[in-house]
Design goal:
The structure is a single chain. The protein has a 4-stranded antiparallel beta sheet. It is about 25% helix and about 35% strand. It is an alpha+beta fold and about 90 residues long.
Length: about 90
C-alpha cells in the first residue's frame, strides 16, 4: 500500500521513511530509520530499513517513547493487590 502524500509531508527526522502497516488505528504509519545500504557488485545499492523510531498520529510525528506513554497511561490499574503473595513469602 502506498502512503498518502499528506502523511509523507509531515515533518520528521532526516534519513527516515514512512511505512504503512496496513491496519487501522493510531499507529498505522510507522516512521523507520534507514539502517544500512547493501552494495551488490554490478547492481544499484539497496537501502535497508532500521528500527521503528516513532509514528505519525493525527498528522504529527510522535517519537516512540511518547507514543508508548500515550498508550500505557490509561491502561494502568487503579489499585494493586499483592497481599496474598507476600503472605506466602513470609511463611
Amino acid at each position: 500500500m502506498s502512503v498518502p502524500e499528506e502523511i509523507r509531508a509531515v515533518k520528521r527526522p532526516k534519513n527516515t521513511i514512512v511505512e504503512d502497516r496496513g491496519r487501522d488505528g493510531p499507529k498505522r504509519y510507522a516512521v523507520r530509520e534507514r539502517g544500512a545500504i547493501k552494495y551488490v557488485p554490478g547492481k544499484n545499492p539497496q537501502p535497508h530499513n532500521g528500527k521503528v523510531i516513532g509514528h505519525i498520529i493525527n498528522g504529527k510525528y510522535v517519537p516512540l517513547a511518547e507514543s508508548k506513554t500515550l498508550e500505557s497511561s490509561s491502561s494502568k490499574p487503579d489499585m494493586l493487590s499483592y497481599g496474598s503473595s507476600s503472605l506466602i513469602k513470609l511463611n
